[in-house]
Design brief:
The protein is of the alpha+beta class and 120 residues long. The chain has one domain: 2-Layer Sandwich (Alpha-Beta Plaits). It is 17% helix and 12% strand. The chain has a two-stranded antiparallel ribbon with strand order 1-4. The chain has a two-stranded antiparallel sheet with strand order 2-3. The longest helix is centred in the last third of the chain and has 8 residues, at 108-115. The two termini are 18 Å apart.
Length: 120
């Protein structure tokens, strides 16, 4: 597992593009296997902030995901997060989650709750 790539998350979210220097593929959540425990949100470094809760479960924005893998393995209790080498851009209707009022990486109250998520 590589270390997460630090960077200006707001600029990446505004550009809606994945940095070319990220050579590892982003991760993807298999929604039919996910139990929505939020462990992946808690594990994703705030400097990346790629995992979001949406209606029907959780989603990873590939443009914000460095592919570091901190959300996989022992973090995910059902092992439903995989590399996505054939990723597609995030749907335009989901982008308001990033940097909006529901962004778990910018809201201090949500961050405190996520910091208490049990590591499986």
């Amino acid at each position: 597992m590589s270390k997460p790539v630090p960077g200006p998350r707001p600029q990446r979210a505004a550009a809606r593009e994945r940095p070319e220097k990220w050579h590892r593929p982003p991760m993807r959540i298999e929604s039919n296997e996910c139990i929505s425990c939020d462990a992946c949100i808690a594990a994703c470094p705030p400097s990346l902030g790629a995992v979001f809760r949406r209606d029907g479960g959780l989603v990873i924005f590939p443009e914000l995901c460095s592919g570091c893998g901190l959300c996989t393995g022992p973090t995910c209790p059902v092992d439903c997060i995989q590399e996505d080498p054939d990723w597609s851009p995030t749907s335009q209707d989901l982008w308001p989650l990033a940097l909006g009022p529901a962004d778990p990486y910018t809201d201090p109250e949500t961050r405190l709750t996520l910091d208490r998520v049990r590591r499986w």
